[in-house]
Amino acid sequence: MKPPDSHHWGGVTEDSLFLNDGLLRVADLISIPPEFCHPDTLTQSGWNAELSTDVSHEELSKQIEKMYCYKSSSYQRFQDYRLCALKALWESIKTDGDLDTTVSSTSATVKSMNTNPLPFTSRVSLLLIFPLLEAQSSANPELCKSTSKLLVDCLKDCKPLSLSTEPQDCLDGLENLLCKWINDGKFVKSNEEKACLASTLVTLACARGSVRMLVSTIHTIQKLQCTNLDVSRMLCELLDTSGGPGVPTSLSGSLHQLCWDHTDIVSVPSDINKETNNSKEVPRSLGTDGRYIYMTGFTGAGLARIGTGRMGSLRGIVYSRNVHMEQGWVTYANDKLIFRTANADSKNTGPFCQRLNKDTLKVEEDIMLVLPGVNTASSANNTTTTTTLSLTSDGHYIYWVTCSSVVVKSGSSKSSKSLTIFVDVLDFQEGEDGKTQLVPVKDRIALQRKDVDVGRTLTEALIEKLRPARSSAAANMTLEAIQLIAISAKDDNSQTSCGLTLKVLRKTPMYTCGSHLVMVVPSTARAGQPSAFFVPNLSVPGPSTKDAPGIATSLCFSLSDGMLDQKVDLTDAPGCALAKGSSLSSMGACYDVESNCIWTCSDEWVEQWGNPGNMAPHHIARRLGSVPSPDPEHPVTMETAVTILLHHLGSSCCHQDVSSSADQRIPDVTETYLNQLSDILKSVRGNSQQLRCVLILLNRSMQSVGEEINLGGSIGRIRQQVWEILSGEDNESILHRASKVLSESFELFYSTQESQHAIVVELIKAKNPGYQILQTSVFGHISSVLDGNLAVERSPWCQMDLVSTIFKAVVEESCTLIMSTVTLSNEKYKELVSQMPRKSACVSLLGSIQSHLFRHTLADIENKDTTAYLFKYVSFALQQSKKVFESVLAVCSGLDELETAQIEFRLSTLERLVKSSVLGIIVPSMLCLLCEKRLHSLHFSETLLQVLGDTSVVASKAATAVHERVKLLSSDSLMMDEGVEKSCSEYLSTLSIPAPWAAGRTVETAHPVRDNYKFKDTVTIPGARSLYLRFDQRCATQYDYDKVVLYAGPSTSSRKVAEYGGNTYGFGSRSVLGSGWPTDQVKVEGDTVTFSFEMRSGREHNTPDRAIWGFACTVRAQESGEEDMLGMPVLADTALGLSTLTCHALRVLYNGPPTSKEEQLCRELMESKLLQRCVWKDQANVGSSLLRNTDITPKIIQKIRVTTGRAPPVFRPSLREIVQPGEIEIAVVAAAVKHLKLDIDEKSLKRENSENFVTVSKVLTRLNTTLRKLQSLAELEQRWDHTREEFHVGLGKTGEAFFSSYHLQESTLGELELLCFITGVVYDIDNPEDAVRELLELVADKSTVREEMSKTKWLVNMLKERLAVLMNVDVSDEPILDRTISLANTLGIAEDLEFSRSHSAPSLLEGKELGQMTGSKSAAFEVAKL
After folding, report:
1. Residue 599: in which H helix or E strand, if any?
2. CA–CA gap between residue 666 and residue 212 (Å, rounded)
3. To 5 degrees, how large is the angle CA 1325–CA 1330–CA 1335?
4. What does the alpha-carbon distance between residue 616 and residue 594 come to, in Å, rounded to a whole number?
5. pTM of the model
6. Kindly report the CA angle at 9 between 3 and 15, in degrees rounded to 5?
7. pLDDT digits over 73-114, tens only?
8. Which tops the pLDDT comparison, 1389 or 441?
């Protein structure tokens, strides 16, 4: 079972996020920034920006910032949203993979625990006999005959597969004994004796049912020269098993595979909708060919074709619609799309059904129903006494489910009436006039439950009456005794033969797999109740449902006798539509024979379910070929025996070889077993039926090979044989089977990466039909492996030489596809477009490789080699993609040679071809993932800027060219006028950008609502000024007091906004509340709205579901329609994505390298304009001794002080050692002499009015001031340390501390503040007594350890480091032309941008020295206080 928050992603794919409206469907699952929903931030900027060169530097900087910074760009937000969705999808896949691994390991553990050992004593006695028999038979050959006869007599009463639970080692011993007697000529010599032993072996193999023994038996008997085997009875019974036991098909929660939502796929026009409202209720119906699903609307009207995600189709894409299709049932059988109208039951003339065009969904042919022995016209029209409940198919036959009101008259004048459910199995055949017609293939089936009282006499009479081709006198008497009468309205609530009322059956989803007809009914409601089709919503909080029997129940009726075989409850499926609140009355279902799965569709969800049952025998016959049953009274030939045994093995594997099968591994797959299979495969090459069976068995066997088995040369032999089949066979089904053998065991046949890559390259170039089928199969397998590979390591499939080969093939394929717009004829082009968009095998493989490459890079983004590899791939991909854009430009030019009508059609469908190309599937996801901000480095810009710019230009030209041609066709004049030309030039800049995050949240009741139903919900969108509500057009309640009330606030006590209720269908109150359900958006002030709904009336018996549908409402934070949130043209999307990435690359170059941690610590220091003028020359001396590179000595300093009259401060010896005033003096004077270019000789200093004298005097004065402040600080800190020491030894007292009265005198407040700085206590100028109190607590605290004079030492060291910097730099006259923080305001750069250091700064300053020199921001303020 999937996690509660991940099953919603089950039907989402990367393709649907980029090519469909999938982003709208995951809005509730993605965490997005709050500003995304704010109306003021949804502005589009920067596209029309043009740089002007005749402006100031400041204005030019602002223009660049506006052009290349897209913080408020609508498209950038759109890309970021898609990136969030893509990452969330990957995370859900990872979560599901981890959970599946846990579940599978748990299942394996449980399975191993359930294997009970057999008793030892019951086995050993039998095992000891076999060696004795073998030894005695060498001396007495007659023992073989007697033993064989005894075994035959014992096996006579055994049924096929009846020995599967017997001790396996005992059966193995018996098998080995028989094989030895047959193969060794010294035991038996005549063919008759060998035939007897072979018959015994075949009988034992059939009774045991072991795959390994059946293969061994076939391998053994194929070597014999005997012609006949006496095993006909056993083989007949083996054929009847149809491959082994199974369970009926049903909806099983454990096999719920996919669920994706769809909204209003079939939108019926209002005029047709009015007609539908007055017609009968017809449920939704489905049909499928495996690639597409054909579905009708909620009322049975309208028809649509959507992709399943299989066979190249894209999941959820709507390929075609026919909204004008009237009510009826749609199904797909025998490569024909069939539709039967709802009015056909009441018509006296007309066809039984119609065949529709699979692409356009329009009627192509009328099909009549022909009953053998009955006039065609009368049989086709004699349907007025029946009511169609469903028309479904198993992919081959059509199953017509009807209800007839039957009156049976007995010998006395009494009569009995019953509503009987019949199933007619129909097949197609060509009539004498060449038209297609339907004929029954078996007797009509009457469905019946064992617990329903339908008399046997009635049932027998019905069967006799309705059996075709009856013309005897007895049959005519039966016709007089039975009458079929029309069903009246009062019969709706009558119980039918299958145990459900007719009213319930009209809305019951039905499907068939060919063996059983399944009706999906509610589990918790009784048949016939108005609320029978309400299913509790298990996905929202509510009453506990753990005691409920299930979400729904599948009633499985056998199509052999019509009896109810089994009832299966649907449980443990929290992700299915029924658990989310959908009703069964809105659901349709069908069986997919291609994938052996079940599709269901409700109002908003399409789902795929695995089929737990076996395939029907006629489906097996279509896959493997039909095998006639031998005559039980006569022996069979060896060839017939081999065919039947292989058919059984193939049938058994067909049941397992489907998507819904669990781990069905064949046990005991050894090298001997594979060698036997190889020999069998070689011997059946001339028999296509046997070859298909062997290939299916081989595929299942190869998947069961364990890693611990030493396979030797058997793998090479089988691989060579399969390649020979692919090269020499022309049967498509055999080619498909052979391809599956190689693809599904690809890693087993090709164990090295080199061999795998070589095969892929070879398949890309191959033109052989068999190889092309293999290409699709192998590429699909590799794609599934890559999609499920969530490991951190990069897959070998991402090697650049292989990826480049695949990408070139995809580009060539895409160019050919797009150029078909002008190269194909009209008919061929229409046929091509009807299947678009499609995903070819090469494109699918490339998409999986790209997705894996990006996942790996984002997981290891700090690794420069990883990102460099990704950028190399992106650069190559963009260069190749330019060729496809150029093909689009060529198409726009080549359309001039076509007629105007063709140009219009081909331009309107070009988008479908582009979606199928590399531009629609590969490039959009790549551009979206490149928007990851962590990838935007200097390497990103330097590597990709050129190719991004070039590709962006070509993409913009292609998008504009297509738009230009469309505008030209829509223009009245033949020549493009000025307005059209201007609109085309501004196409990309004025394009409406989707805002899927604004899709809002949908609030809805169950559909339809049940009695006493109550609902309350509150929606809040933070930051929204107003909320905009749009109600579904299907909103309806039975009476106008069954209403929903809106409140502008978080509860029902908030301000009441509006209330709505009632319906216009003529039921219940026959009116609506007020002006009715709103068709326009409803505005609610504020960011919160509360819905309150209550169903006060009880549902009346004649009220249809549409009149009690309930309500659904979408709440958004901005006023917009659904069209504002849908996708944009692929070419425009790609062009804008390339432009955005080009701007990102320019911005990264403009900003330079990112700010390092050291530079962030030095932010205040780098704002210094003095340091910005520094030129670092001698990097080797940075961080060296302060006085290393100066000629100033203490004697020179003393002379200068004497000359200028500036005496130094006097320090006590203890403080002089810490402050080091002499060293600071020398450094300050040396820095002043160097940077101020001073002359300090005695002559210049003696002239008091000279410039040197004045400057040196000022330097010494400021130096003395600094030294005195350091002296004051040191003295105060020394005093603090002595006081702490006194307190720690017990001599100090709180009231005698030297600072205890500092807060009382204004003259000592300065010292108090300085003391707080030393100790780290916060000083509040308004409350100095608090500082004193904290100081007293701190001085008495013995737990803290503090270095002596630590603050003074720290300040002295910081001062010396700054002086060291000044000693090792030259200061230029002008600021260096580099980006610095002090220039930010001048250049108009945003303050929050990150900046780099000066390029001339020495690298040694990046580390410890620079960090110690500057400290933190607080250190700068501490220095300022001094």
Report:
1. strand 597-601
2. 8
3. 110
4. 13
5. 0.74
6. 155
7. 677 777 777 777 777 777 766 665 554 544 444 444 334 334
8. 441
**Beta-ladder partners of 296:** 303
Phi and psi dihedrals of 691, rounded to 5?
A: -65, -40
Task: Name the DSSP class of 520.
Answer: E
DSSP state of 1270: H
Contacts of 825 (CB under 8 A, 6+ apart): none
Q: Compute the distance between CA of residue 319 and CA of residue 291 in angstroms, rounded to an integer.
A: 11
Q: Crossing angle for the helix pair 1350-1367 and 1221-1236, nearest 10 degrees?
A: 30
Bridge-based pairing state of the strands 415-430 and 398-409: antiparallel
The angle at the Cα of 372, spanning 370 to 378, to the nearest 5 degrees, equals 50
CA angle 1134, 1140, 1141 (to 5 degrees): 90
Q: Is the pLDDT of residue 659 over 60?
A: no
For 744, the token pair is 């599904």
- 739: helix, coil or strand? helix
- Please choose, from the candidates 72, 81, 100, the residue with its C-alpha nearest in 3D space to the C-alpha of residue 29: 81
Burial level of 341, CB count in 10 A (0-12/13-18/19+)?
buried
Span 625-644, pLDDT tens digits: 888 888 888 888 888 888 99
What would the two tokens of residue 932 be?
A: 């990851």
| Number of helical (H) and strand (E) elements in the chain, helices listed first | 49, 34
Dihedral of CA 871/873/879/882: which sign? negative
- Each residue's pLDDT tens digit, 873-919: 999 999 999 999 999 999 988 887 778 788 888 888 898 899 999 99
- In this structure, which amino acid lies at residue 1053? S
Peptide bond into 530 cis (omega under 30): no
In the structure encoding, which two tokens stand for residue 392, read together? 């479904």
Residue of 20, 58, 249, 108 lying closest to 912 (CA atoms): 20
Non-local (6+) Cβ contacts of 36 within 8 A are 77, 81, 997, 998
Listing DSSP states for 294-320 in one string gives EEE-TTS--EEEEE-S-TTBPTT-EEE
Q: Tokens in use for 1155?
A: 């700010």
Number of C-beta neighbours around residue 1403 at 10 A: 10
Contact criterion met (CB below 8 Å) for 376 and 370: yes
Residue 652: count other Cβ atoms within 10 Å of its Cβ. Answer: 25
Q: Residue 379: in which H helix or E strand, if any?
A: helix 376-381
From residue 684, alpha-carbon distances to 218, 626, 1404 in Å are: 11, 17, 79
Asked if residue 250 lies in contact with residue 568, where contact means CB atoms within 8 angstroms, the answer is: yes
Q: Higher model confidence: residue 981 or residue 340? A: 340
Q: Which of 542-546, 1128-1132, 1199-1203, 1349-1353 has the lowest mean pLDDT?
A: 542-546
Using CA atoms, how far apart are residues 11 and 309, in angstroms rounded to an integer? 10
What is the percent of the chain with per-residue pLDDT over 90, rounded to a whole number? 16
pLDDT tens sequence across 420-460: 899 999 999 988 888 889 999 988 899 988 754 444 434 44
Q: Compute φ and ψ for 1015, nearest 5 degrees.
A: -150, 135
Which residues neighbour 179 within 8 Å (Cβ) at sequence distance 6 or greater?
201, 216, 220
Instruction: Kindly report, residue by residue over 172-231, the tens digit of the pLDDT.
Output: 777 777 777 777 766 566 677 777 878 888 888 888 888 888 888 888 888 876 678 888
Residue 516 has pLDDT above 90, yes or no: yes
Question: pLDDT tens across 1244-1298, in order?
Answer: 556 565 777 778 888 888 888 888 888 888 989 888 888 888 888 878 777 778 8
- Pick the closest to residue 876 from 801, 959, 813, 818 (CA basis): 801
**Residue indicated by tokens 């070998």:** 796
Which single residue is written with the structure tokens 């309400």? 534
For position 845, what pLDDT does the model report? 92
Q: Which amino acid is at 665?
A: R
CA-closest candidate to residue 949, choices 1146, 654, 681: 1146
